[in-house]
Amino acid sequence: MLAAAFAATAGWSDWRSRRIPNWLTVSGLLLGIAANSLARGWMGAKDSLLGAGLGLIVLLPFVLLRSLGAGDWKLVGAVGAFLGPGQLLTVLLGAILVAGLMAVVLIIWKKRVGQTVRNLRKMLAAFLTFHLPGPELTLENPEALKIPFGVAVAVTVVVYSARRAWGVW
């Protein structure tokens, strides 16, 4: 439940300000490591560090390509410290699905389906020719629609934690 409380706080921050502050992500990382260390000793500390490292390594390419914000990246690392590597992968896949659903709703709501199809074509062409897409397809583009990925992570962690607490999953 600590992971859920932490993720909900980070998700709220991302929703309100589109930022997840360093003091929150670093505190979450340390709290996750401490909680697992106290609960399971060295094995808990090892799982926390592996979870944090896995979350950071898996999402690092997206941060370097500027398709994911650094706060979201650090949030996933901190969530990994709470959950460990196995549970993090489940939560990360769920968060990607939630973010995708959020993106589809936003694209339809803002009537940007045509532009989205054109952008997908540009990204596919860049991928097939081993080039980076242009700067218009990064988070720095002021006209780009942006999904608060921290909100998707928060929703997924809260649902995952609730299901585990109630023994449904």
Please give a structural write-up.
Helix 1 packs across helix 3 and helix 2 crosses helix 3. The chain starts with a helix and ends with a helix. It contains five helices and no strands. It is mainly alpha-helical. Helix content is 78%, strand content 0%. The protein is elongated, with a radius of gyration of 17 Å.
Rg, rounded, reads: 17 Å
**Class by SSE composition:** mainly alpha
Low-pLDDT residue intervals, each spanning 5 or more residues: none
Q: Can you write the helix and strand succession as a string?
A: HHHHH
What characteristic shape results from the CA principal axes?
Answer: elongated
Q: How would you characterize the largest beta sheet?
A: none
SSE topology sketch:
Layout: H1 2-17, H2 22-64, H3 70-109, H4 113-128, H5 149-165
Helix pairs in contact: 1-2, 1-3, 1-5, 2-3, 3-5
Task: List key phrases describing it.
single chain, 169 residues, mainly alpha
Summarize the structure.
By secondary structure, this protein is mostly helical. The protein has helices at residues 2-17, 22-64, 70-109, 113-128, 149-165.
